[in-house]
Amino acid sequence: MSDFSNPKLTPWGYIADSETIADFITVNDFVSFTGGKFSASDTRIAANIPSATQAIRNYCGWHIAPSLVCGIYCRVADLRNVIVGRDLLIQIPANFVSSVSKVVINASLDPDTGDYIGDLMTEYDITPGGLLRVYDVNRVDRKSKVFVKYTAGLSGDDIPAIKELTADLVTHSVTSPYGVNSEAVGGVSVSYNATWAGQSSTGLTNNTREVLEPYKLRGVF
């Protein structure tokens, strides 16, 4: 049986066991977060949620949510890693890692089964930050292939800050016309916050980046 029934190669260099990765919020979530100030029928909301979600994920360097079964298959040289004695330390390209279910060293993909075969390792430790220590590794060099199957990401009540931030990005995107700081219609004049004026949902302010710091991966993967 294949490790991944419906794999998706993510923009961050690892595989997710899902054909699609859901956005952080739905249109109904957005309406709820904004206190009903917008109608669910407003097509701008659905149009901007995916780009706001992707902007946050790209800045943080991984999918963040939901919790997904993922896998990496690459050369040892392509990983941020250290060999300590006979142990191999691998930094998985994700955060909030809840478990690792398979580690294969000198791995290759079996075309008949879709599974990764090689030296199956059974002794390893993992931290929530994704630092994997594999014990007693033999015959490994920088060209050796490694496969790691793991579960990472937040779900449910663990991501309120991310959901609210996504809703905030979408709100400013649909209410701040690009390149316009203020406008007047008849006797009504509206001025937009200078921080957000002209900013689409794909842009992140310094304040947004500060909120995202706990979710951002460190280093380059």
3D structure, described in words:
By secondary structure, the protein is of the alpha+beta class. The chain folds into two domains: 8-64 and 155-214, no CATH class; 69-152, no CATH class. Helix content is 22%, strand content 29%. It is built from four helices and twelve strands; from the N terminus they run ββααββββββββαββα. The strands form three sheets. A six-stranded antiparallel β-sheet has the order 1-2-3-10-6-7, with no helix packed on it. Strands 4-5-9-8 form a four-stranded antiparallel β-sheet, with no helix packed on it. α2 crosses α3 (160-175). The chain is elongated. The protein starts with 7 loop residues before the first strand and ends in a 9-residue tail after the last helix. Residues 179-201 have low confidence and may be disordered.
Low-confidence stretches: 179-201
Q: What Rg is obtained from the alpha carbons, in whole angstroms?
A: 21 Å
Number of helices: 4
User: What does the average pLDDT come to?
Assistant: 82
What structural class do the secondary elements suggest? alpha+beta
The backbone outline, from C-alpha atoms, is elongated
Distance between the termini: 29 Å
Write the H/E string, N to C. EEHHEEEEEEEEHEEH
